[in-house]
Amino acid sequence: MTSTLIENAMIVTQNSLREIIRGNILIENDRISYIGNEKKEADTVLSGKNKIAMPGMINTHSHAAMGHFKGLLDDMSLEGFLEKTFKLDSERSEEGIYNSSRLSMLEMVDSGITSFVDLYYSEDMVANAAREIGIRSFLSWVTLDEEFTTQKGSPIKNAENFINSNKNDPLITPSIGVQGIYVSSDENYRKALDVSDRHGTILHTHLAETRKEVYDFVKKSGGKRPIEHLSEIGMLNERLLAAHCVWATLREVKLLAKGKAKVSWNAVSNSKLGVGGIAPVPEMLENGLTVTLGTDSNGSNNSLNPFESMKYAALSVKNERWDASKITAQTVLDMATINGAMALGRGDLGSIETGKKADLILLDSSRPNLVPTTEVNAVSNIVYSANTSNVDTVIINGRVLKHNGILSYEKMEEVRESRFN
Ligand SMILES: [Zn+2]
């Protein structure tokens, strides 16, 4: 057994009472086994002095394999972006996917993300990278109509094979995805739903991201909007993780809520792509939807930074609604942590509590940008003042992947030297 003790930290627990307490955290193997003020013995002792301990963040929408797309797809509309992405995708090698994935995962760990949800093809290569880095991964093999895909063979079969060959991995949870209504027929959605039902996995999809996507679909379907349509064909269930949902009407928000679908809000990526407007998040929350946060990829966001995501998400709603009270720091922190765990059906993640998986981070609150931090302003400071340079320590599944601000990964140089391919 391995054990790690974090001594005397300020713990932003994110438990059901949202308690902030001062004390010690004992980690034994992959779990948190004790929180309190007793002195405990451990193999490794980390000082919690001037540190905020908080659950690691859960990034619910990304494409890790696009790590090397950084700066190649900027300043163009989503349609132009997708066209260029599909072209670049078709020229890729498995080695390129593996290296880009390692790069994105290292950026995520470095930034305080301990779990991420991915949507891409060749998830077997992404899984290899995730095993090597040690990040907790929820990998959705994307499906789309065969006429649009660059995948070899049937995307649905590829996804199911991927699920079958990656079950029971402690850090990797395989699932299926659907690219989006613009390249996926009803048949594709239904087959993907069938796979997700039979294996009990999430179904991860892009949905209602741009006005063009919605209007094109309305035209094609004779007046139906994408979320209405997915509701009619029975796709909205509690295992559906829908990324974006920017262009959703109140009726569609209610449909998503009724189906208990989960939303991944990608505020930074949406604004950078200029999708127009801000997702109707206040209405989603009022209707009881579980809203989580995603960075999207380095292609559309350029940084996998959960602090930027939280701050921008909050600011965008406040500004759009002319109301600074429309969304709180606590609500946004919930989205980045415990809501992500709920969306994935993982009650053992998302908060610092005894018995939960040891996925947590320490922020250095002695740096000027976090002074002063007390129990009163800790949550505000995490959302509005912190940045990735405050991420001192990252622990995933009980393993320390970053400490004193330095990643422990040994092949960083190899990843740094890798190029887009
Ligand atoms: Zn995406």
Secondary structure: elements and pairs:
Blueprint: E1 3-12, E2 20-28, E3 31-36, E4 44-47, E5 51-55, E6 57-62, H1 78-90, H2 94-110, E7 113-120, H3 123-133, E8 136-143, H4 155-165, E9 172-178, H5 186-199, E10 203-207, H6 211-221, H7 226-232, E11 240-244, H8 250-258, E12 262-265, H9 267-272, H10 281-286, E13 290-293, H11 306-320, H12 329-336, H13 338-343, E14 360-364, H14 378-385, E15 391-396, E16 399-403, E17 406-407, H15 412-417
Parallel strand pairs: 1-4, 1-5, 6-7, 7-8, 8-9, 9-10, 10-11, 11-12, 12-13
Antiparallel strand pairs: 1-2, 2-3, 5-14, 14-15, 15-16, 16-17
Helix pairs in contact: 2-3, 4-5, 11-12, 11-14, 12-14
The structure holds zinc ion (ZN).
Could you list some keywords that capture this structure?
eight-stranded parallel sheet; 17 strands; binds zinc ion; alpha/beta; Urease, subunit C, domain 1; 421 residues; nine-stranded mixed sheet; TIM Barrel; 2 domains
Write a brief caption for the model.
With 421 residues, this protein is an alpha/beta fold. The chain contains 15 helices and 17 strands.
